[in-house]
Each structure stands twice: as C-alpha cells, then as structure tokens.
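Re: weekly structure request thread

Next one in the queue (334 aa):
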Amino acid sequence: MKTNIIIIALLFLTSFSSCQGQTNQQQKNQLPLGKKVLELDPDIWRIFQDSKNHYWFGSNGRGMYHFDGEQLRQFTREDGLINDTIRGIQEDALGNIFIETPRGISKYDGASFSTLNPIRSPYNKWILLPTDLWFGYDADDIYRYDGKFLYQLQLPRQDLDAAFATKANGVHFKDLKYNPYGVYGINKDSKGNVWIGTLMAGAFRYDGASFLWFPEKELSVLPDGRAPAVRSILEDKNGFFWLSNILNKYKIVENGKNTSYVKLAGHDKTSQQFNIALRYFNSGVRDAQGNLWMTTYGGGVWKYNGEQFYNFPLTNGDSEVLLISISIDKQGTF
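Done, posted below.
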C-alpha cells in the first residue's frame, strides 16, 4: 500500500527548500549559537514544530537541528546542550524549548542553553497543572517542571512480582539492578490527565488527586523475556486508550469517586491482510479526523480509523526503514 502523506525526515527537509518563510533580522539574531548545515543527520529520533512554526529535529548522538524556514542549524554540547543524544522536545507558554536527553534536560531561551537542576526530595508532592511540563529521562521515575523548578517525583510502588507473576531476566522485580518504574512514555488525554508508561511496571494514570494503575502482563515483561516498555499512550475518537500495543484497548470507567478500567480486545490479526509479528508501537499521534497513526521498529506505519487497522510499509530502496517516532505538523503533514 502507498500513501502520499507519510514522509521521512530527509524527504521532509527536501521540501523545506521551497518554503518562502519571512524571517526578520531580529529573529535571525536569536540564534547566535550552532553552525549552519545543509542536511540532517540520518538518525533522527524526535521531530517537533514550535509556536513559531519552526522545526526541531533531535538526533541520536549528534545534537539538535533547527529549521526556521530558511536556514538549518545544528546545536551540540559545544553550544551548551547537556548531551547530544535527544530523547524529547517540548515548548512552554513563553516559547522556551526544552530538550530531553539521557543526561538531563536543557532549556533554550532563544539565545543560550541552560541545564535544569532537579530538586530531589521525598517531600516533593504530586500536582497536576495545565502548564506543567513532564519528563521521564534521567529521572529515578519522573520529573515535573512548573516553570521555575524541576521536581523529581516517585510513582507509587506496587507489588510487581505478585501482579505479573513472572520475573525479569530470571530475577524478581525487587532485586533488579535497574528501575522497572523508569518512565518511557508520557502523554495527556482529552481531560488533561497525565498517562505514564514505564519499563516494566505497567502504566499509570494520574488525575491530579489519585493514580489508576494498569498491571497488565502485556505492559511488563513478555513470556520470551523482552520488555517493550509503554512508550506511547493514545486516546482514540471512541474514548479508548491504546497503551503502546494494539493487542488490547482500555476503557476508563468513572463510578462516583471510584475510577477503574476495563480491557477489551484490540487488533484482530485474523481479519487483517497483513501479519504483525510484535504488535507494539513506539510512537503515535492522532490526526484531525481522529485517526491514530503509529510507528513500529520494523513493521512500517499503522493507521487506525476507529474500526480497522491499515499498514503502510516504509522502505529506502530495498531496505526497510527503522522507525523511531512520528509527529504531525500544523499543516497536517506527517
């Protein structure tokens, strides 16, 4: 199957040459750092369009790229980035850009980079405000940024051994050398609740007052020992939630002060014309029509219209493209 709206970053960059962006001298002077380059690094993991309609591309080891409609510039540790491996890009209400890396979080204010220093304290409280930014990398669990301070928070601990009745690499969860609660995915739903996906501890939904935990085996360690992690949480137009896999979908049930969920069957591979070996996605978006678009490492792009799944293979010549993330810009282009 073919589609004319799925494009990769290098093709996207080619189309930039036709842009007729109007950038005044003041805007140009806001980017004194970095160096001009003619092309993106081939390993791009994150793409973000900011409030100025500028594009940011995060690479897997060669820093950050910025395209303002006319120039492509590259920023690295030499310019003040805390690390050149980019794992997330966000923007606050003031237009500051926040770059998430495995070594911490950098803030770019239009002129220079600074590093956010987290407050690590057992007295840090969970709060949910619309303007908060949330980060998962380089945290014991998760960070919340309120515009002034970066707070490290801990997810509520659960009995993982009892919940999943399994072991991770033959070791009980409590004896692991790494943190099974490490955050791999953070998304907000239509009501403003924050959803948090972990490495092996399932998923959590936080509504500002309490947590709803999803201790499902498909969200932890698989029978073959793999831990795909909950990397992306999507809400479809029918109100169901997809937690980084299409095996199942989840429905929130509100009953007074009590909140629970039900799990329903997701993708039925027996009724599809394509075979999916591992039905997990690592990134996803929802378009203006309510369709879900999801990427997999080796299975191309999936589209879900609320009833059926469609698969779009993506190749570069004879080679299958390794897909890491997907984003959609304000013009509706993927």
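The mean pLDDT is 87. Residues 9-16 form the longest helix (8 residues).
Next request, please.
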